[in-house]
Each structure stands twice: as structure tokens, then as C-alpha cells.
């Protein structure tokens, strides 16, 4: 860390430390100036009970999105999640077409190790075999994000990365018809359109949106066109129950500019090495949600949803130092590789929450069942045309043609025992039964595949929480976690990676110990330590063959652990001295230190066994810090945010340099972002956003697969402005 950073962090904590005390609960300040009402939602943790879920004793966050605090028009994740310590963001593109986040040593690639949900149901493409999240929700549609760290494994599934649930806005129940719209335009021909309707008629409420986002991209040959749709119709048949039908769809087509070598990045980080590469996911999610309150103590929730869609790519796949030029013998460009996945899955989750008396104190019990079935049809390594447009047609059949099937049954139970008025103990258990089968052909359709793996196992965990009289909370938990190896571990999708045929599932556990609270409305904090044990961690190693050529080897590298601290603080600089002030200036700091290292493991290199013990876990920086200053008044809200992300390594060898750019160090970087919102004439607002104000030259990841291989440069300085109305 440079000198500026070393001075900044202690200064922020010293100025806040003397304020620590007080109540950690839902805090919403309401201001009124010139007929403009501002409801300021502070970052907070989830309540002990929400819906049919128990969150007592867990590390949680409850986020609210507001224009002026984040760049919502282009789904800027580093601003949206700025107040959650330790969120590592892979910035694949500046358009926000994918959510790529990880924490505590987990993989950021399309949030593959995080249980991503919308309104309570999963949006990951295949939770057990291919859990990448191809679905894209526009941040302008989000009212709230619920986040639970590793202890989410019991109630929501066994991922190491925890659970993240997007709650979509609902219509104004005081109106028969309401309408909102925002149109934004910016650099590189960026344009974003968000339009929604909502309201309530008798017992029926509704909300629907349509969102479109287009642009040329910051790099050449990086154009995109994205659309998202959503509709929710809820019928409340009496004061105890409701049923809702929801339909969501997202699709986009993105041109991929390709990866860079280190030399190319140093020479010109804005250059493109590919002009003919494209990516196109299409995801549809219809869902049915039933809620019923049998009595004041018993609630049942049943959610069923389908996930149907596809993932398509056409690309010239090779390392960045090999140009995509005309083949002299063919007199045309080389044929491109066509890969297509087709997803079709069905999930039902039934949950029950029961409140009861244990002695003179109230305790709570929750339990649930899950049924999940998914079929993925995977067609890869098809020989496509030599064309330059988005063309999925073939000149030679797919080299890989597989049918991948997952069947999953799960049951869980947790009980929050209220031992005293302030002390709760919440033990829990989850039982998983996962059955996966694979059939088809690989290696140019010459090798048949027939694979089956059944496993069942319990997961256990316990949460503790003590609430002091002033409202502060001391919390702690420990919970087991599990990650089955993915379909990609059975059949490699790219020519650069070799797969270990004996790869195993990953197992481990996660633990937290923290203290959180509020002091009136002027100071809030959440300080914690964590430990994650990640056994049989799957990852990539760099190997050199007899011809001195680099290859990547996917295997169980060894056991890893991530331990460290996460600290969030926010202080109201004006209201600290004048609690009746109508405006405010807020300073927040979100800091994490993650010591993520291998504790076992070795690799044979050039005939020698090289230990991996002490090496950094892939893609995990030691330090991540995001600090911001937010100004609030009757009409204006604006945030200036600083981000620092430390260096990380892209493979378990901790390779320093690879001529292809596919592995090596990801250097530390510093960024500044700005968001602004101005409300006027009651129903209108104006927004302005600048990403990467000082045009920092950086990247967040190297990659050996789509959309690289090589360095994927992050966007330089970009901006957008928008005009919106709400009636």
C-alpha cells in the first residue's frame, strides 16, 4: 500500500472510533425541504427474523440502492456494494452486463460461488453443475439487497460465498396506476432506458419493468445490446395469504475485444485483439410464490420457479499473442469455435416459520424442503464459419455433445433459542442429496462419456448473538459448507486447460465473530473477524511440458484458508454537531483484510515437487478498501468514492509472468467514482455519474477461458447523465 493509503485508513478509523456505541437497528432519517421528502436508508444488518428466515447470529447486510450514492444506470457493482467489506469485483465490462463478485477467497467469475437469488428464488444457471449467474437484473429495479455470508449454507445451500437476494421494487399500493422512467446517455454511445409501471386495483397489485442498455464499449469491438423484462402480479385473497406470479427475462449480445498480454496492455490497454468474438446469454425465469399466515405464530412460504435459457458464444480462441488474421492457406479468416449451452431447471422450496414460547421467552423455529432438477445440454467446440458477425451456424459438428443432469433433494431446520432477553443461540442442520449424471461424447465425438456420482451429507452450524441494553450486538457463528465439483471439471471446454480425472468435491466451514451497532443517527459500525477453511480447493496450476509450452491444469490443488477482518464505519459529520440539521455530510469506510493462503498442496514441475503451502489463493487480494463521502440535502444527493484493491495472483503457483498473459500478478489499483442526483418539481430528477474519474490504467483479472485468454483491461474514465420522472 502506498503512503497515501497508509495515512487514509487510520485517519478514518480514528475519527470514528470515539463515536462507537449504540443501537443497531433499522435506521431511516426523514427530511423535508421545499416539498421534497428524502428518506435516507443507512446500511444495516438483517433483522433476527425476516419472512420465514432466521438471521440471528449471522453476518448479514441489508442494502438499499439510491441514485446519487451509486451509478445505477450501468450497474456499477463497486459502488453498489461499496459498504459491504471484502466484496471483490471482477470488472469484465463497463456496461454492468454481468455480476462478478466473490468474497473471502471465492471465485468472482459470474459470482459462481455465491447463491444468487431474486425475490427468494435462484437465478444461477445450474446450482450444482454450472452455477454461473448469467441472469442480469438492472440495479434501477432493485429496492433492497439481502446478503448473508458463509453461514447462509444451511438455509439456502452449501456455497462458500454465501447468499445474495435481490428484492425487486413493488408498485405503489396507494395508486391504481404509477409510472417511472429514466433515460441515460453517456460516453462511447452508452444509452440506458428504464421504464416501469405499478399500482394496486382491489386485491391485485402489480409491477413491471422494461430495461434496455446499448453502447460501443470503452475498447474497440466491444459493442453490447442488453434487454431485461420483469412482471409481478400479486393477488391477496384475504388478510392471511397471497399468491403471486412473476416472470423475468434477460438477454444480451456482447462483442468481446479479447485478452491482452502484459506487453500489449503496457503499450495500449485500450486495444482489441479480437473483432469476431461474441457472447449471448438468454435466461427466462417464471415463478409462483405462495405465502400464508395460519395464525400469528405460523407462516408458510412455497416458491416454485423454472429457469430456461441458453448461453451462446462464437469466438476465435487462442492466446492473446496469436492474432486473428487471414489464414494464408485458406485465404479467409480461421473458422471460429461455437459453444452453446441449453438450460432447463425446476425448483420448489417450501419453508415454515413457527414462533413459540420457551419458558417466558419467545423462540423461533424454521424448516424447509427443496427439490431441484436441472438438465443442461452442452454443445461445445463446434467449427463455425469464417464470418465476422454473430453467426452460430456450423461447418463441422460439435466436438463435445453432452447431456448433464442434476437431481437435488435438501432439507434444513434452524431454531433460535431465546436463552435470555438478550442472548440467543441458533443451531441448524441441512441435509443434501445430490445426484449428477453425464452422458455424451467428447474429443471430436470420438470418446463416449458415461459418468454418475451420488452423494449425500449433512451440514451443521450454530449462531450466537448477544444484544446489549443499548442495542449493540455481539454475534458469532460457525457453519459447514460444501461445493461439488462442476461439469467443467469432468470435461474441459478450452484447449488451454488439462483436467485432473480424479478431481474431488470441496468441503469446509466458515466462522464469524463480530460487534455491530449504531449511535443515534450519527454513527454506525460493524467490526468482525472471520475464518474460512476450504478443503480440496479446485483451481488451476501452470505447468510447462516437454516442449516448454505453458499449460493450465485444473485439479484439487490442496487445502486453503482465508482469515481476516472486515470493518464498516459511517459517521454523519454535520449531524454529529447539529442533530436538527436538514442536510448531512456522511463519511463511510469499508475495509477488509483477507489472509488467504494454501495450507497444503504441491505440484510436480520439471520433475520436482514444488510446495504450494503459503501461496496466495487465486484472485484474492489481501486488502480491499472503499471509502466515500456522501452529501445529502433537500434536493441533492452526491457521493465521491475512493476504492483500493490490493494485488492478487491468477493461479495457485502464484506465477509472476506468463508470456500469454493468461496467468500472472493482478497489480493493485486505486480508483475514484462520483454519483450525483438532483430532485426537482416533486416528480423529476437528474443524474450524473463518472466512473474512474482520473482514468486509472488497471485490470481486475487474467483469464484462460472466455472471454480471453489474457488480461481483460478495465474501463478508463467514462460518464453518463440521465433524466427521470415518477408519477
TrEMBL record:
Segment forming the signal sequence: 1-22
Membrane topology: Multi-pass membrane protein
Ranges where the TonB-dependent receptor-like beta-barrel domain occurs: 221-693
Record family assignment: Belongs to the TonB-dependent receptor family.
Gene3D superfamilies on file: TonB-dependent receptor, beta-barrel domain (2.40.170.20), TonB-dependent receptor, plug domain (2.170.130.10)
Sorted UniProt keywords: Cell outer membrane, Membrane, Signal, TonB box, Transmembrane, Transmembrane beta strand, Transport
Domain TonB-dependent receptor plug: 73-159
Name under which the protein is recorded: Fe(3+) dicitrate transport protein
